[in-house]
């Protein structure tokens, strides 16, 4: 079960823009991420590589946690992301992430957002 301090530390790393580093430091080796109803992606190394690929296509990423709830091993975070690609197109994603933690690391995460926002 994560402490509030550990969760706040994770949020601060994401808000700083170090998304790939957050995955490396705060996710279990066998972690999974799932976008809405898509099949989950499994394995921290692959999750980090995918995140780096997304970030390479961006000129700027703004990340803000609007709120977070911690209940035992269950965490919910309301995020606002603004992603500016290299052509200057800005996408705003209003997302809720539901996380299951194993100790002080994230084991499972599922994102809920309007998929038309992410295109």
UniProtKB/TrEMBL annotation:
InterPro entries: NTF2-like_dom_sf, SnoaL-like. Coiled coil: none annotated. It comes from the Bacteria. Pfam families: SnoaL_2. Residues 8-108 form the SnoaL-like domain. PANTHER family: BLL2395 PROTEIN (PTHR34003), SNOAL-LIKE DOMAIN-CONTAINING PROTEIN (PTHR34003:SF2). This is SnoaL-like domain-containing protein. The lineage of its organism: Bacteria, Pseudomonadati, Pseudomonadota, Alphaproteobacteria, Hyphomicrobiales.
